[in-house]
Structure formats: C-alpha cells, structure tokens
UniProtKB/TrEMBL annotation, chain A:
Organism (species): Otolemur garnettii
Cellular compartments annotated: Cytoplasm, Cytoskeleton, Flagellum axoneme
Cross-referenced SUPFAM superfamilies: Cysteine proteinases
One of the protein's GO biological processes: sperm axoneme assembly
Transmembrane segments: none
UniProt-recorded name of the protein: Dynein regulatory complex subunit 7
From TrEMBL, chain B:
Name of the protein in question: Dynein regulatory complex subunit 3
A Gene Ontology term for the protein's cellular component: axoneme
InterPro entries in the cross-refs: Cilia_flagella_integrity, Leu-rich_rpt, LRR_dom_sf
Domain of life: Eukaryota
Length: 874, 526
C-alpha cells in the first residue's frame, strides 16, 4: 500500500507538469487521497482538512494556467509510416557514428553539456537531428521568401514551452506530426522553418543554443507592435537654392542682431530644459518597463534558425526566431550562445567562446577550429581562404581525429525519415490553429483571424492601450478582407470617439475614407472619394452641423470648391413634416480654377451667393502680371420708380472694380446679362447643394445597410466557398456518376446466370457453348414473350374495367349527380389514355422484339467466351 | 422673286438700315429696354442678318469689328467687298446673290462656314487663307472643271461640301472623284458619305491619288528644307557671322575684281590662287565658330538674367497678392460691421480705422514695389555691364591681330606681295621678250610698264581689303546696335512694368477709398 501510494504521488508530481488531458486522472487521484488519508489517520482535525484543501487548491492552479503540453500520448502513432517506427541500417550506422562522436566530444570537452544529436521521435525511435529536416518547397508563393515563410510558421503553430527550460527536449517530432497537431516547442518550430527555408534555397541551419527569457517564452509584451510603428517619413532634403548670377539681393535686414541673439539664447535654454525633462521621463518609463533579472539568464535552452549569407541573395548572416518570425542580427542580445547547429547534411559544434553572447561568433562553418563538424564527406560551406593557411595547424587535430574520419570518410547523411511535408490549401488559408491567434505586444494587442472565419470579414484587429497593464483602450484598428462594400480598415479612436473607415476602390458610391463621430446626418464628418470613379469629380466632402464643404477635381466647368453655410432650422408648425424640413442655406461660396481659354478678367475665380441679402459677390482671376483682381458685387433690389415701372437695372446695383476698365463692361446691359446668368447659376448651385445633402443621407443609409448585412465577396476561382460553382460542380459530378452507372448497367453480363450453372474453372466445350447460347436465347425469347403478355394482360384489364364502368354509367345515368358524372367522364378519358399508351407500347414491343432477339444472337456470336467454339460451328 | 428683280430698286447699305437691323435683332424684353436706353454700339454686335434687302453693294460694315455671323443672302450683290475689317467672322452667308468670282475674303482667317450657294461662280480660288474652313457651300454655280476639287485638298478641316447644281456635278464620276480626292469629307451635298463609297472611290482613283500625294509630299519636304536653311541662316545672323562658314567672303572679294581675274592668267599665279582660298576659308571658319560660341554665351547670359528677373517679379507679385488678400479679408469684415453699426461716432471711428488700413496697404505695396525696382535696377546694371563686356571681347577678338579677320588681312597682304612679285617678274620677262606663254590681249595690255601693272595689282588688293573691311564693319556695327537695343529694351520694359504696377496699386487704393467714402455718404444720407 505504501509503495503504491508513493508511486501514485510520484506520478502525480510528473502529471502536474503535464497535460490538461490528464487533469481528469489527476482529479481522480486527488479524490482518492483524502479517502486513503482517512483510512490511515482516523482522527483528522479540521485544520488538517483545511490545510489539505488549501494545498489542493494550490496544486490546481498551474494545471489550469499552463498551456496544454504536447505529449506523445496524444499522437496517434499507428497510422505513421514505417520509416517513423524503425531505423534503416544506414540510420543505425549513423547513430553509431553519432554516439562515437559524442563520446569523443565529451572526452575532449568534459565541461560542456552533452550534444543534442539523436532525440526520440514520436514512435520512441532515436533519430539523428539532421535527418529530421526534410527540405521541402511548398506550392505557395508566400512561403518562398524567408520573412513570409517565418511568419507563416509562427502563425500556423502554437508554441508549447520546453518541459525543462534548461535542457533540450527528449523528443523531437517529425514536421508532419507537428503540422498535423499545429503545436510544438521551439525545436519543432525551427525544424519546420529550416526545412521550408532549405527547400526554397536558403542556406539555413537549425541552432541549438541559449536565449533570453523573453525569447524562450515568446513574450512580446516588451516589444513594440510592428503595426503601430509609423513608417518614418524620409526627411526631405531642403533643396539649396542655387544662387544664380543675377538673383536679386534680398532687402537689407534692419532688425537688431543683438536682440535676436538674446531671443535665440532664451529659446535654446527653454528647449534644453524641455528636452532634459522629457528624457528623464522616458528613462523612468524605461526603468519601469525593464524586466526583472532572470535567475536562469544564459541557461535557457532555445532553438532558432540561422540563415547564412550567400544563397538567395542574402547579403548578411542573420537569425530568425521561429516563434515570433522576427529577424535579428547575430549581434542581438537576446541570443546568448550557440551549442551546435545542423542542416540536412551535417552537424557542427560551436567551439568558440560565447562569453559575449553571439556577438563575436564567426559563422565560417568551413573553419574546423571554430566549428567542429561531424561528417567529413559532405561539402563544407564557406571554405574561406584563411582556411588554407590554417591547414598546417589543423594537421594535429586531424591526427587526433584520424580514426573517426577514416570511419566516416565515405559516409553521407541518410535521406530524411520524415514524410513529405504537405499543407492543404484550407489549412494554409486558415493559418493559425482554429483560424485565430492573439499576440500581446507592449501596450498593444494583435488579433488575427483567417479570412472568411468571421462573417463580417474581420481578419486583423489591433488594440492599442494607454498603459502597460492594457486596461485603457486608446484606439482600435480593424482590418477587413473580401467585403462586398470594399471596407478595408476601420480605425476607432476611443479618446476622441472618431471613427475612420477606409475603403478600397470599388465601393458603389466611390467612397475612399469616411470619418465620423456618429452616423446621424448633419454632424461632423468627412467623406473622401475616389474622384476618378465619380462623374462629378468630387474628392472630399466635409460637414459640420452648420456647413458643408466640397472639393472637386478635374471638372469641365473648373469648379474646385463649394462651401455652403446653413442657418438655424426654421421651426414648422406641423411636426409631421419635420423630416422634409431642410436647413435654410445662408451662403453659397463656389471657387473655380483658372480656365486657360478665357482671359483672366472674364474668368470667375469665386462667386458668393448671400441668399438672405440677395447679394452676389464675384471675384475674377488675377492676371498673370497683376496683383489685384477684378471684382463685382450685385445687390438685387426690386424697386419701382415714380411712374410705377419696375426698375430693371440701375448703376448702383452693381459695384465693380476692374483692373483694366473696359467700355462694354460699364454698360447696364452687360451687367444685367451677367446678373441674369448669375441668378440661374445660383439656382443650379442651390439645387446641387440640396442634392449633395441627399447624397449624404443616401450614403449613410447605404453604409448602415452594408454594416448590417456585411456580405463577403467570394472569388469565382474559390471552388470551396463559391456556392454557385459548387452546386454546378456537384450537378456535373452527379451526371457523370449516373452516366457511369448506366454504362455499368449496359455492360451487364448476360451470360453470367448460365455460366454459374456450369462447374467453375473449366473450359467450355463446344457442346456446352452451344447449349449456353441456346439457353440464353430461349430465355431472352421467353422474357420478351412474358413482357408482351404482361402488357397484353394489363391492356385487357384496363379495357374490361372501362367497359364495366361504361356499363354502370349506362345503367345509372339518370340518377347520377353532375359531380359523379364529371368524375366518370374524367375517369373515362384517363382510362382511354392508359389504354392507348398500352396499345402503343405493345405495338412497339412487337416491332422491337425480333430486332432485340437478333441483336442478342449476334452479340452472343461475338462474345469472347463463345466466339471460338461457335465459329467452328458456323 | 426673279420676275420682280428688275422692277425692285437696289438699296444702299446706309447707317439707318444697319441701325434698324441691329435694333431689331438685339436683345428682347427687359434687356431690350436697357439696350434701348443705352443704345447699342456697332462694334459690340456679334451677329447681323441682312437678307432680302436688295443690297447691291456691301458697304459701311467696317464698324462691326467683333461680328461673328453675317447673313447677306438673297440680295443682288455682285462683288465680295468691304468685309476686310470683319476678322472675327466665323459664319458668312452670301447665297442667292450675283457674285461671279471669289475675292476679298483673304483677311477672314477665322471663317469656318462659307456659303456661296446660287451665284455665278465658275472657279474656286482665293480661299487660301481660310485655313479653318469646315463647311463650304458652292451649289448652283457654274463650276465645270474637276480640277477645282484638287484645290480644296488644302483645307484640313473641311467636312461638308456642296457642289450640286454645277456643271461638274453632271459628270458621271462626280461623287467618286470627290470622295477619292477629299477623303476627310463627311457630308457631300448634304448627305453623309458612307464608308463603302469611300472605299470604292479610293480603290478607283488610287493611282492618281498616290501620285498626287507623292508630289505633295515632295513639295512639303522641299518646303521644310528651305525653312530649315532659313532658320540656320537666322541663327548665324543672330551670331553676326552669317556666310563666314565657307568661301562666300572670298568669292565676293573676287566678284568685283576685274584686274585680279586678269592677273590670274599669269604663270605661277594659278598655283598661288589654288591654296589661297583654302587658307582663307579656314580662317573664316574659325571666325564663324568663334562667333557661334560667343552667341551661345550671350544667350545663356540673357536667359539666366531673364529667369532671375522673372523669379524676382513673381515672388514680389506673390507677396503683393498675399498682402491684398489679407487686407481684403479684414476690410470686408469691417465693412459689414460698419453697415450694421448704428451709432454715428463709432461708425466714424471704424471708418477712420479702415482708411488707415487702406493707407497702410498702399504704403506696404509701394514699399514692395520700390524694393523690387531697386533690386531689379541692380541686376539690370550688372547684366548690362556683363553683356557689354562680352560684346566688347567678341569685337576685340574678331579685330585683333591674334585671330580671325586680322589674319584674313595678313593673308591678303601676303598674297598681294607674292602677286606683285610675280607680276614684276613677268613684266621683266616680257620686256626681255623671254615669255614663252601666250597671254590674252587684255592681260598683256597691263604689262605696258611697271606703273600700270603695279596699279592693277594694287587695285585688286584694294578691292579685297575693302571687302574684308566692309564685312568687319558690318559685324561690329550690328553687334553693337544689337547690344544697345537689348539694353534699351530691358530698361524700357522695366520702366513700363514699374509704371503699370504703380498705376494698378493706386487704382486699387482709389477704388477702395471711394467705396469707403460712398459708404460714408450713404450712411450720412440715411
């Protein structure tokens, strides 16, 4: 009992660190424990109970918080191919070599940790790490470049921390298994990434080394989210104005130099103060952000990918952390040391000192002093020129390693035992496990979804927080894909409450940007448009409760700007018509760009209609060599002169200033005509302003509808999602299937029932063949006759019934109600129809039967089984 | 109408008739009343209709400067005349008249639509200047020669043509011919030409059209070549070294030199003359190249100067505009407050402020202008100095002994000495009677005595020198005059610009001030 209990407890200790799958069992054990305890110690105090409870509750916590650990129990090993379960002789040989190498290494360097050479795979078989790499090029263009490839790996897999953070794992699973279950530790990550990178031509290596705590735990909370970093605007080089020979000298500066100097000094002091304060604040913040010193610093095992320069035009050697898909230079302080590295061909041990992280390491794998290789036969990369000079020195080592090398001389790395890596398009598209992934950055949270996972097309959401604890939301950015309304990005600023929607080209109203605080009309909002998609060339419309401003581009009438001022709404008596009560327009300002075909004096630059005062202001364009522009102001007054006639136009109704006074413009007629034209233009402008308002309402309504419906577009090439094409395809498949069935039917063996009667396996004799043929034919004849009889019988039956009915009708004709009569008549017509059909079928059968019979006979003569025997006979 | 023709008295286009027509065709209703009040000037009229007036002679139309459309159809006009001043005319209708020849339309370069329907015209000509012609109506005339069609090929924009009712339209090939030779035509005799007809016509007349096209192309090429040559010459003239890139000067030296030609028959002279032009031409060429180089220099100098001046003026304008815009904003605001203000003292105060603003604006603008004037003055002076220096250098180098024309003179002197030597030798020989060769009589006549021959050689030499001197003088005078003209022009332009600007500023200030004053008056009246 004691032994058993101990065992149970040991197990429990192990379980605690293990998966949640075992939680049940653990629970059971824990349930058992109190019972056992009661058995042994009959007297149990309340305190003890409470203590136990407390302990139990303590135990529970890590199980809940820890992510599910990927154990081999969850893997179904039965379906795995043979190469996973056994080792080939070559692999066995390799393992022996590796063991030998390991022994020599531990003998030579007793103070270093044992090598990570051949961990067990999912079937408990030791496999050499290089053979676990399976270089693969997948048919997705995204995986061809290292950055997107790494991003994919990091998205696709869920990270599981190492069971022992200080030692490399015992197990290293194949990439296929890892891909299937979509989780793994850093070694699994880097193995998969390395396989893909080598497959697409990079000179990539898996690294076994030491990393910082953040790196090992994939902790990005101290990193700034790459999406929040604004791209630095290239500093515009101030073009130095080249002083030409005749450039005029600037006017003399008459202000005091001394005063300026003093002013400048003061300003500088103030600025320095400000800068110092800012710096201090920043330092404080940085201090707060800094991580607590890690007790295990430099001991945490991590695995990442090294990409050497040279292949695929990689200019510089760099590291990729497969967990986060970030690239680092070898000088980065997150990487604290390298134990060994390998690719699919060889294995190298780092012989350089890592006291200064990886900063001093030289990645010249051909240098045997710095990198001890395991297999000689494979090509040495980066065999640099200095190598040759070192040859003399290396001779000593060579003598030392002679025995080993002789043995290895002709030895190649065996082919990988891992199956071909495959990723289905569906899995590739969904990217993250279950299509969703959350990354926590410094003051930001990034959520990713697979396309089409969310019904509103949401694919990415970035939430930015104000504080480190991520409690106060600063702003939210949401990226969408495949939306029918072309919505691309939604930006919500929580502090100002401003919403900004960005659209891709193709919105039905050519909307580009829509920023607003509320969806109510007549509030602050800015709409920007794709002006080339609009007939009226509108680029931007700004609204405030009291005004509306529109900007145009490339219009035939050169209109570039329209501003409408609204007055307060006039209250109407009837409340019902409140909807159709527009705000009264007070002023309309329209600006035009220069029309090169007109002289500047006749080309209107701006006209202002002050509607309340019946005033129209006109400003013309400025002439090229002038600084003043002509202008006119019309005041409309409808007055009546002394005789009672209406005054049409008087000189004081138009005040004009002309740069170059002209005769004809002074005339009243000209002014009158201009005024009339302006009046009609005013009407048009008012109408357009009204239409703009309507359009805003329409867009708002449309937007609301779109938000409510959020339909997604599906590419016609997307066979999986496109319902229409799916239906079509299924229909096609069905047709094909039916066709196939029919073919099978036609190929029915008409001899089979007769052949069965004969003893199987024996060759047919002629007599047998003859009989077979005759039997078959007679049988067919019988069937034909039967069929004819059947039709005949039915025909007769039908006729009889009809006759009976007719008789019955004749007898009871007088007493029948009209309904019954109708019934009878319809029965008669149907019966007649049936009789006619049967008659036709019978006739047809009679016609076809001999033909069918002949056809079968002919077929039988040509049947491969009978042809030999019957030929002789005929 | 035609029966009545003889009985109707021809009318004269006098002032009354025109006034009546203008008044009738002028604006209507309210605008008409206004027009009546003010009267319409002939030069403002855009369209005039004078049909069925029995006009015999076109007259008194010179005042209608801006006329666009003129209708003179259904009259008895016999000659096209008196339309020279109507250069803006776009539409001219002279149909149903008695015109016999097309004439007097040379100045109407803007004409697009010309109708000469139902006249007595027999030949299409003198329309060369009407390059914008689009519609030409010549129906019911007496045109009989098909070659008239080829004349119409020069009108690039001609789309509509009517020729029906002419003798040539009776021809069997009429339509095809026109379609083939005028491929851009869209309407013929008021009917659209379909593509099929066009193709047919083209196929039918392909050879002759190709030939015609080839000839036209050749003409075009020749014209272009001539133009290019002309341009080249202009360029050289601008560099003042025209005709110096060859033996032109040398040839001109011998052109008027009778003695020289005679002397060339002397033994030994011909060899001398062989090498002489080459040497001379080489020197001329160097002068020519030097001249072009200098011209290039002067041009860049001028360009930089112009560019800088333009920049300065533009910047100044921008400043001025900005100032005015700022002022106007403020001014409009204060005007509206004044209008709303009811108390007299505050109004007066506001008005005072406004007029102060105006004065300030005036001062600012004038200061800007003064600044610019000073700056430009400086730049102009610098430029003047530089360009004069450049010209001086050029002239000096052309004249100086080291180079160029002086070398020509040296060469000529050298040549003269040689020639003199040979001549004297020959004379001696002749005197001695040792000369073997035969000389022409007029040459022999020179060798009478020493003086005669020396005179002859001297005369030749003098002529040569004179030519060289002339060329040199021409160059120097022309370049100097160019220089002075240029500098004068720059100064003049600057003065005009300055005056214009000052005028503009004062005009604007006056206007603003008067507006303010008016407001004052109005308020007081109120």
């Amino acid at each position: 009992m004691e032994v058993l209990k101990e065992k149970v407890e040991e197990e429990e200790e192990a379980e605690r660190e293990e998966a949640a799958e075992r939680a049940e069992r653990a629970d059971k054990i824990e349930k058992m424990r109190p019972a056992e305890g009661r058995k042994e110690e009959i007297i149990m105090t309340q305190e003890m109970l409470r203590d136990l409870e407390r302990k139990l509750s303590e135990i529970e916590i890590p199980i809940l918080t820890e992510p599910p650990i990927f154990t081999k129990d969850t893997i179904d090993v039965s379906t795995l191919p043979l190469s996973y379960k056994t080792n080939t002789p070559k692999e066995e040989h390799l393992l022996l070599v590796a063991d030998n190498f390991s022994r020599q290494y531990s003998h030579l360097c007793p103070d270093r940790v044992p090598l990570f050479l051949h961990p067990l795979n999912e079937c408990e078989v030791p496999k050499f790490v290089s053979t676990t790499l399976r270089p693969t090029l997948l048919p997705y263009p995204e995986l061809y470049n290292w950055d997107t490839c790494a991003q994919f790996v990091s998205d696709f897999l869920t990270m599981v921390p190492l069971t022992d953070p200080l030692r490399p794992p015992q197990y290293l699973y194949s990439s296929t298994t890892v891909l299937k279950y979509q989780k793994g530790n850093c070694f699994d990550f880097s193995t998969l990434l390395c396989s893909l990178l080598i497959g697409s031509g990079y000179d990539a290596y898996c690294v076994n080394g030491y990393g910082s705590q953040d790196l090992c735990h994939m902790d990005l909370t101290r990193e700034v989210c790459p999406l929040t970093v604004k791209p630095k605007e290239p500093v515009k080089k101030q073009e130095k104005v080249q002083t030409k020979k005749y450039t005029i000298k600037p006017p003399r500066d008459l202000s005091s130099k001394f005063e300026q100097e003093q002013q400048r000094k003061k300003e500088e002091e103030r600025r320095a103060e400000e800068a110092r304060r800012l710096r201090e604040e920043e330092e404080q913040l940085l201090e707060a952000e800094k991580a607590k010193p890690d007790p295990l610093y430099g001991l945490r095992v991590h695995s990442w990918v090294l990409v050497l320069s040279g292949k695929r035009e990689v200019p510089e050697t760099f590291f990729i952390d497969p967990l986060t898909a970030h690239s680092y230079s070898p000088q980065d302080e997150h990487f604290l040391g390298i134990e060994s590295l390998w690719n699919h061909k060889n294995y190298w041990i780092n012989m350089q000192d890592c006291w200064n992280c990886c900063k001093d390491l030289i990645f010249d794998l051909g240098d045997a002093v710095r990198w001890e290789f395991m297999l000689l036969g494979t090509d040495k990369p980066n065999l640099s020129l200095t190598e040759e000079e070192d040859n003399g020195m290396n001779d000593d080592d060579d003598v030392e390693n002679l025995g080993k090398e002789d043995e290895d001389k002709s030895f190649d790395m065996p082919h990988s035992w891992v199956e071909q890596i495959e990723i289905s398009p569906e899995a590739f598209e969904s990217r993250c496990p279950h299509g969703k992934k959350v990354i926590q950055y410094k003051k930001a949270k990034l959520e990713k979804w697979a396309p089409y996972l969310n019904s509103n097309g949401l694919v990415t959401r970035l939430t930015t927080y104000k504080d480190m604890e991520c409690s106060q939301i600063l702003e939210i950015k949401e990226w969408y894909q495949n939306r029918e309304d072309m919505l691309e990005l939604k930006h919500i600023n929580k502090t100002t409450g401003l919403h900004v929607d960005y659209f891709k080209p193709g919105h039905t109203q050519a909307l580009r940007v829509h920023s607003y605080k509320s969806m109510q009309p007549e509030m602050d909002r800015v709409m920007e448009f794709y002006e080339t998609a609009r007939v009226d060339g509108l680029t931007k419309r700004e609204e405030t409760p009291k005004s509306m401003t529109e900007y145009y581009q490339r219009r035939q009438d050169f209109l570039s700007y329209r501003h409408i001022d609204y007055g307060p709404r006039v209250k109407k008596i009837s409340q019902n018509s409140a909807d159709s009560n527009p705000r009264p327009m007070v002023k309309i300002t329209e600006r035009f760009s220069r029309n090169p075909e007109k002289p500047a004096d006749e080309d209107v630059a701006e006209h202002v209609f002050v509607i309340g005062e019946d005033r129209i202001q006109l400003r013309y364009h400025c002439r090229e060599d002038h600084i003043t522009a002509s202008k006119r102001e019309f005041l409309q007054r409808t007055e009546v002169d002394s005789k009672g006639n209406k005054i049409i136009m008087t000189p004081d109704m138009c005040i004009s200033f002309e740069v170059e006074p002209m005769e004809h413009t002074k005339k009243l007629l000209y002014q009158y005509q201009t005024l009339m034209q302006l009046k009609s233009e005013e009407k048009v402008s008012r109408h357009q302003a009204w239409e703009s308002e309507l359009e805003v309402l329409e867009i708002l309504k449309l937007r609301e509808e779109e938000e409510a419906a959020h339909t997604l577009t599906i590419s016609i090439y997307d066979t999986r999602r496109n319902e229409k094409s799916k239906e079509y395809r299924e229909a096609m498949e069905r047709v094909l299937h039916e066709e196939h069935l029919r073919q099978v039917e036609t190929q029915l063996d008409y001899l089979a029932p007769f052949l069965v009667q004969l003893p199987p396996g024996e060759k047919l004799t002629r007599w047998q063949a003859m009989r077979l043929k005759d039997e078959c034919l007679s049988d067919f004849k019988q069937r034909l006759i039967d069929k004819a009889n059947l039709i005949q019988a039915r025909f007769e039956k039908e006729t009889q019934e009809l006759q009976k009915k007719q008789q019955w009708y004749q007898e009871n004709q007088v007493t029948l109600s009209p309904e019954d009569e109708d019934l009878y008549l319809s029965y008669c017509s149907q019966a007649m129809f049936r009789i006619r059909i049967l008659e036709q079928r019978l006739n047809r059968h009679k016609e076809l039967a001999p033909l069918k019979y002949l056809a079968l006979e002919e077929k039988l003569y040509k049947d491969p089984r009978l042809v030999e025997l019957l030929k002789v006979f005929t | 109408m035609n029966q009545l023709h003889d009985s109707v008295e021809p009318r004269v286009m006098d002032d009354d008739m025109l006034k009546l027509a203008v008044a009738e065709q002028g604006p209507r209703e309210e605008a008409g009343q206004l027009a009546k009040q003010e009267g319409i000037l002939f030069k403002d009229v855009l369209s005039l209709q004078l049909d069925f007036q029995n006009i015999l002679r076109i007259d008194n139309l010179w005042q209608f400067e801006s006329l666009r459309k003129l209708q003179l159809d259904n009259n008895i006009i016999e000659r096209i005349e008196g339309l020279e001043n109507l250069t803006h005319l776009v539409w001219l209708d002279l149909s149903f008249n008695n015109i016999e020849t097309i004439e007097g339309l040379d100045t109407l370069v803007n004409l697009e639509d010309l109708s000469l329907f139902n006249n007595r015209i027999s030949k299409i000509n003198s329309l060369d200047t009407l390059v914008k012609l689009q519609v030409l109506s010549l129906g019911n005339n007496q045109i009989s020669n098909m070659m008239n069609i080829i004349y119409l090929r020069r009108f690039k924009y001609l789309r509509t043509l009517s020729l029906s009712g002419n003798p040539l339209s009776e021809a069997e090939d009429y339509k095809m011919f026109i379609c083939a030779y005028l491929p851009d035509l869209v309407y013929l005799d008021f009917r659209r030409i379909d593509d099929q007809t066009k193709e047919l016509a083209e196929a039918k007349h392909q050879y002759s059209i190709d030939e015609l096209k080839h000839r036209e192309h050749l003409m075009q090429v020749q014209l272009e070549e001539e133009q290019a040559q002309q341009e080249e010459l202009e360029k050289h003239k601008a560099a003042f070294v025209e005709h110096l890139n060859g033996t032109f000067l040398f040839d001109s030296m011998y052109a008027e030199d009778v003695e020289g030609r005679k002397l060339s028959y002397l033994p030994g002279v011909s060899e001398l003359l062989e090498s002489y032009p080459e040497k001379f031409a080489v020197i001329c060429m160097s002068v020519f190249e030097y001249g072009l180089k200098q011209q290039e220099k002067r041009k860049t100098e001028l360009d930089t100067f112009n560019e800088c001046v333009q920049e300065a003026i533009w910047e100044n304008q921008q400043q001025g505009r900005h100032k005015i815009a700022k002022f106007e904003e403020k001014y409009l605001l204060s005007l509206s407050t004044i209008r709303e203000e009811s108390e007299v003292p505050s109004i007066e105060k506001k008005i005072m402020e406004c007029s102060e603003d105006i004065t300030e604006l005036f001062n600012v603008l004038m200061t800007l202008e003064m600044q610019l004037v000073e700056q430009l003055e400086e730049a102009i002076n610098l430029f003047e100095r530089n360009i004069t220096d450049l010209v001086g250098l050029f002239v000096e180098n052309v004249q100086a002994c080291g180079c160029t024309i002086a070398q020509c003179r040296d060469l000529e002197n050298h040549h003269h000495e040689k020639l003199l030597e040979i001549s004297i030798n020959t004379l001696e020989k002749i005197v001695k009677g040792e000369l073997d060769e035969e000389l022409p009589d007029d040459v022999r006549a020179l060798f009478v005595d020493k003086d005669t021959i020396i005179n002859a050689v001297g005369a030749s030499h003098d002529i040569h020198l004179l030519k060289i001197d002339n060329r040199e003088d021409e160059l120097v005078t022309r370049i100097n005059s160019w220089c002075t003209q240029l500098v004068d022009k720059i100064h003049r332009d600057e003065t005009t610009r300055n005056r214009e600007r000052v005028k503009e500023i004062s005009q604007y200030i006056d206007h603003t001030q008067s507006e303010l004053d008016n407001l004052e008056c109005g308020d007081i009246l109120d």
